[in-house]
């Protein structure tokens, strides 16, 4: 099917998508929303380069510079998005240079995030896909029109090849650099619509395995600039001592010893801690250790103990009589379950986990009057502008954000707390930049953790074993209530990122999802795969429990329930075939799980063994079949799936944050356990896109299935022992074995 018929933008439905002439560049209309996406079109930049639009600059030597609007944090987006423009404009990829887009949501905002610059939710490719292809198509039409003027021929007689225009009747050629050196923009500007996009059969770059990532060479040879690498003239360093319990404030500060440290310039109280400014990192660290602070004791987080609360959450989720917010409802699931011949129910729980990015939180800020300049590894330039403006008392347009490479993000660097540290301290030494670098201990103890969550699932079966009712209740704190309170209120108290993934595409005649918000004061945030990472744990383990009750193969049950989902069936069948699903293993067993999160279909089979003496689980291999819709970079998709599987195995087996009376117990990697290289499973990935499908998100798609696949494998290995609490710590496994 022609690819141009499958333009897709999320989360708003598209009424029209049209490239227009004039000052608006590309105008993207979503209902009543109309915003400029290319900015003012410039005929020639001050350097003499040719700028067809705000995304592309062509130099006289033929070098094409393409803006990358998303944050690169190891997911390869700095290659994927510019590749879409290069494809449609017929650029020579070997002569393309990528430029990180400035903080300018009006021009470079993501349609998938309501027009702001934010990288997360596996939304970058899905959000920008149509927009950037159209930008490339418009660029190509401008180049053709400009070349037609130079050659004095009709544009209809011209075609493009990589980096050049060819006049078909005469064979004359013009390189893009030659056009850039002398051409002017046509007036009026050519328009581009979906009809101008290349069909899949004409793609030069999309789908090729030999397109390498742009960011990798500089990371190998050390040229890459992360936030921590930023150096500015007359730069100072900053640190912030935070309270041991979130929400407390400094009441008394004894800083005599800290001020005596050589190189310390300022120590200042903040509403949330104590700031230190010095000439070196070492000085600020030493001074921070010497501070003696009396903290307030009024924070309600002091009553927060995670072991106790998870049990409270479990009881809340399982109390069917307790109302929550109905997140989804199809049919009368309650009545169907009440009248069922058999009712199956189970509880699933998941602990807090930390982001633990290899590059800790850091930012550099310079305050000059009412203007702020920031260099940071941020996922959210737009949010950074707004929060920084609030600190200084200025407007967001006076805040410039330079987005560096991110040494891991996983949603943590969409937050602004580390940005505010740098801006708050820089305000006190106006005119000198201040770089704040969090210690690993700061990073672990003051994270915005994945929510503590408990789930209760119920299914009603008729006398023939058919599912007639499905109910999924989720008790967890809200991320949106803190980060987007207005949206949270508009949604009637529902947090759809916390419940994301509970809505499944299995054939269920009645289906209801309830969200029961828990509010105990601790900040929670977006973590890799967010809600899907634990909701699919519940769903996919529960599917296996139903299969066991029906005494049928769990693969067969999934295929039965996915009878109207060809893409889903294909990945389930492929993963089962890859693993040799029916072949017996000595001392090992296989488990399967499936996910359609982020618009990509992903099935995984995990092979595990179990030490029944220690309770330790070993994951030997994971087979994965993934359908991303449009496989823009198949080789990179394989790599991203491996990242998700490795991360998912880590959080399923090891990762856990414990909070006791408001204080986080873990401080560094000696106590916050993550997967070791020796523990990582072998991984085999098959990318199996189904023709004509819309592009899906890939950054997090590999994580949701692996945890439930491991749990399901343990159940098959042990004759039905169910692991229902993330992480599967050895002591929890032993307890389940002895139950």
TrEMBL record:
Q: Which Pfam families match?
A: MoCoBD_1, MoCoBD_2
Ranges for domain Aldehyde oxidase/xanthine dehydrogenase a/b hammerhead:
221-299
Q: Output the InterPro entries linked to this UniProt entry.
A: Ald_Oxase/Xan_DH_a/b (IPR000674), AldOxase/xan_DH_MoCoBD1 (IPR008274), AldOxase/xan_DH_MoCoBD2 (IPR046867), AldOxase/xan_DH_Mopterin-bd_sf (IPR037165), N-heterocyclic_Hydroxylase (IPR052516), OxRdtase_Mopterin-bd_su_IorB (IPR012368), TAT_signal (IPR006311)
Q: Which GO terms describe its molecular function?
A: oxidoreductase activity
Q: Which domain of life is it from?
A: Bacteria
Q: What is this protein called?
A: Twin-arginine translocation pathway signal
Organism of provenance: Tistrella mobilis (strain KA081020-065)
| Primary gene name | iorB
């Amino acid at each position: 099917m022609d690819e141009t018929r499958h333009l897709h933008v999320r989360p708003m439905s598209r009424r029209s998508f049209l490239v227009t002439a004039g000052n608006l560049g590309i105008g993207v209309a979503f209902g009543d929303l109309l915003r400029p996406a290319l900015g003012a079109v410039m005929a020639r930049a001050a350097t003499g380069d040719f700028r067809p639009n705000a995304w592309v600059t062509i130099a006289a030597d033929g070098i094409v510079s393409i803006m990358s609007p998303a944050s690169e944090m190891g997911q390869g987006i700095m290659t994927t998005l510019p590749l879409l423009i290069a494809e449609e404009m017929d650029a020579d990829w070997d002569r393309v240079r990528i430029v990180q887009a400035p903080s300018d949501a009006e021009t470079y905002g993501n349609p998938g995030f309501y027009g702001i610059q934010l990288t997360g939710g596996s939304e970058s490719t899905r959000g920008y896909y149509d927009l950037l292809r159209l930008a490339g198509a418009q660029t190509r039409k401008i180049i053709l029109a400009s070349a037609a003027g130079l050659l004095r021929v009709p544009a209809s007689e011209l075609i493009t090849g990589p980096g050049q225009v060819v006049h078909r009747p005469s064979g004359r050629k013009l390189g893009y650099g030659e056009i850039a050196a002398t051409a002017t923009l046509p007036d009026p500007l050519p328009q581009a619509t979906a009809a101008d996009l290349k069909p899949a059969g004409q793609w030069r770059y999309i789908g090729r395995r030999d397109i390498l990532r742009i960011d990798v060479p500089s990371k190998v040879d050390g040229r890459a600039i992360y936030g921590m690498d930023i150096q500015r003239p007359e730069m100072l360093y900053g640190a912030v001592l935070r309270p041991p319990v979130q929400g407390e404030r400094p009441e008394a500060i004894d800083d005599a010893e800290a001020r005596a440290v050589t190189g310390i310039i300022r120590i200042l109280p903040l509403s949330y801690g104590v700031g230190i400014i010095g000439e070196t990192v070492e000085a600020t660290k030493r001074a921070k250790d010497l501070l003696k602070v009396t903290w307030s004791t009024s924070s309600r987080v002091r009553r927060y103990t995670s072991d106790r609360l998870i049990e409270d959450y479990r009881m809340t989720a399982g109390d069917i009589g307790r109302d929550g917010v109905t997140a989804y409802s199809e049919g009368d699931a309650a009545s169907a379950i009440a009248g069922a011949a058999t009712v199956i129910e189970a509880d699933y729980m998941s602990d807090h986990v930390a982001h633990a990015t290899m590059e800790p939180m850091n930012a550099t800020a310079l305050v000059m009057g009412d203007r702020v300049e920031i260099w940071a590894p941020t996922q959210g330039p737009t949010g950074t502008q707004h929060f920084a403006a609030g600190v200084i008392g200025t407007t967001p347009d006076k805040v410039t954000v330079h987005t560096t490479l991110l040494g891991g993000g996983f949603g943590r660097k969409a937050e602004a707390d580390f940005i505010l540290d740098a801006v708050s301290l820089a305000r006190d030494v106006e005119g000198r930049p201040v770089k704040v670098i969090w210690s690993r201990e700061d990073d672990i103890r003051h994270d915005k953790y994945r929510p503590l969550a408990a789930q209760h699932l119920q299914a009603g079966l008729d006398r023939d074993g058919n599912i007639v009712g499905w109910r999924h209740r989720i008790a967890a704190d809200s991320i949106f209530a803190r980060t987007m309170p207005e949206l949270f209120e508009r949604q009637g108290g529902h947090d759809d990122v916390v419940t994301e993934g509970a809505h499944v595409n299995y054939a269920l005649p009645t289906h209801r999802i309830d969200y029961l918000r828990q509010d105990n004061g601790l900040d929670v945030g977006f973590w890799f795969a967010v809600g899907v990472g634990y909701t699919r744990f519940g769903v996919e383990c529960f599917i296996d429990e139903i299969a066991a009750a029906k005494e049928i193969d769990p693969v067969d049950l999934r295929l039965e329930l996915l009878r109207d989902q060809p893409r889903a069936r294909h990945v389930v069948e492929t993963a089962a075939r890859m693993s040799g699903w029916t072949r017996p293993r000595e001392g090992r067993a296989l488990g399967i799980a499936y996910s359609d999160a982020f618009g990509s279909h992903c099935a995984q089979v995990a092979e595990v063994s179990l030490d029944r003496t220690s309770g330790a689980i070993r994951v030997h291999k994971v087979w994965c079949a993934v359908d991303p819709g449009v496989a823009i970079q198949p080789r990179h998709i394989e790599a991203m799936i491996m990242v998700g599987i490795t991360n998912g195995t880590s959080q399923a087996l090891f990762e856990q944050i414990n909070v006791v009376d408001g204080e986080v117990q873990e401080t560094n990697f000696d106590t916050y356990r993550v997967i070791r290289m020796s523990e990582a499973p072998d991984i085999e990935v098959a990318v199996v896109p189904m023709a004509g499908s819309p592009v899906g998100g890939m950054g997090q798609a590999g994580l949701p299935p692996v945890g439930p696949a491991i749990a399901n494998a343990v159940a098959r290995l042990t004759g039905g022992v169910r692991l229902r609490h993330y992480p599967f710590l050895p002591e929890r496994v032993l307890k389940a074995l002895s139950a």
